[in-house]
Amino acid sequence: MIPVVHFALILRNGKEGHFPLLQKIIRKQNYYNMKKSNIVLLVLIAVAIGVIVTVAGDFSTYETFATARQKEGKQFQVIGKLDTTKAMHYDPVKDANLFRFYVIDKTGETRPVVFYGTKPTDFEKAESVVLTGKMENGEFQCSKILMKCPSKYKNDQVAIGTKA
Questions:
Q1: Burial of 154 per CB tally in 10 Å (0-12, 13-18, 19+)
Q2: Domain limits for position 26
Q3: For residue 22, what are the CA distances in angstroms to 5, 26, 30, 149?
Q4: Is pTM, for the whole model, over 0.85?
Q5: Which of 25, 104, 142, 161 could be bridged to 115 by S-S, CB 3.0 to 4.6 A?
Q6: Are 147 and 123 in contact, with CB atoms under 8 Å apart?
Q7: How far apart are CA 40 and CA 43, in angstroms?
């Protein structure tokens, strides 16, 4: 009598002619198992790509205050410039986590912005700001501020040319 382990080795590694019908069944079964695993893998990859596209699509473009106003309560990224003609309100003694200011979006619309956090350093020097948040009651409730500051090399450019 052949032990079970030895029998399995003969089936897997045996020469042609040793249990050919069983070897054929095992090869066929491995082939179908491999196909099922490939299908499962492809489905998982498709789902992962779908999730990535969906998440990336939410924050892939910058919106305006008008769009945020139409879909009040939904999170958006708005790009704009600080409106220096209107006052900024930040009193760290009264409330260090409340900063109010005005931003002009890319269409020229000015809106008040409320940021519940500390005022960023050199905020007034920012060329543009990207605000992440949502519109509520005419104010943009900002949860994150990304500033684009001017390049420190901008004024250091020197014109090089030949004499005419």
A1: exposed
A2: 4-55
A3: 15, 6, 12, 72
A4: no
A5: 142
A6: yes
A7: 5
Q: What is the pLDDT of residues 24-72, one digit of tens each?
A: 666 665 555 567 777 788 888 988 888 887 776 555 578 888 888 888 8
Q: What is the pLDDT of residues 1-22, one digit of tens each?
A: 444 444 555 555 555 555 666 5
**What is the Cα–Cα distance from 80 to 66, expressed in whole angstroms?**
13
For tokens 């003969």, the residue is 10
35 and 73 in one domain? Answer: no
The H or E element containing residue 53 is: helix 20-58
Q: Which two tokens stand for residue 35?
A: 């196909």
* d(C-alpha 9, C-alpha 12), whole Å: 5
72 shares its domain with 14: no
